[in-house]
Amino acid sequence: MKPSAILYNSNTGFTERYAKMLGEKTGLPVFSAENPPEKGTAVIYMGWLMAGSVFGYKKAAKNYDIKAVIGTSLAPTGALVETIRKNCGVPEDFPVFNVQAGMNHAKLKGGYVFGIKMLTKFMSKKKNRSPEEEAMLELLVKGGDYVSEENLSEVLEWYNKI
Q: Rg for the chain (alpha carbons), in Å?
């Protein structure tokens, strides 16, 4: 069965923007975790990554028929698919995607400010950073916005095939 809605959980707005963009491209209605669809609905679940886990996924999996999971992160699109798969506990053939989102320090709240500071400190002390790690550190320090339709291309390709 195809998904009949998109359900998302957003912290600083990047995931919300991706969810709405995906909704426009697929024609699916978009629901936030604060105003969710009816329990049992077949959904594409989208959430931001926190410590390698898609925020809100486990709760959503108990209440919805999740057909795919999309994590938004600081990492380049596609980079954390296996991490997401492992941390969500989904099988190898389950559709999992990662899209690069961004960093907006002004929208961070509470403990997430501390978490980002700690991650930035850890990344800045790391020796021999890869080009991807350098790009992530720059994003952590300076902020930035990588939300784009292009980053959803793999998701749309999957959706159009089901």
A: 16
Question: How far is the C-alpha of 72 from the C-alpha of 17, rounded, in Å?
Answer: 11
Give strand pairing partners of 98.
71
Amino acid at 73: S
Q: Which of 15-19, 36-40, 46-50 has the lowest mean pLDDT?
A: 46-50
Give the list of residues 6+ apart from residue 148 with CB closer than 8 angstroms, or none: none
Q: Considering the entire predicted model, what is its pTM?
A: 0.88
Q: List, as one string, the DSSP characters of 103-119.
A: E-GGG--THHHHHHHHH
Residue-wise pLDDT tens digits, 66-110: 999 999 998 888 889 999 999 999 999 999 999 999 988 788 777
Query: Contact, 137 vs 124, CB < 8 A?
Result: yes
Q: How far apart are the first and last CA of the chain?
A: 9
Q: Which residue(s) pair with 69 in the sheet?
A: 45, 96
Q: In degrees, to the nearest 5, what angle opens at C-alpha 117 toward C-alphas 113 and 120?
A: 140
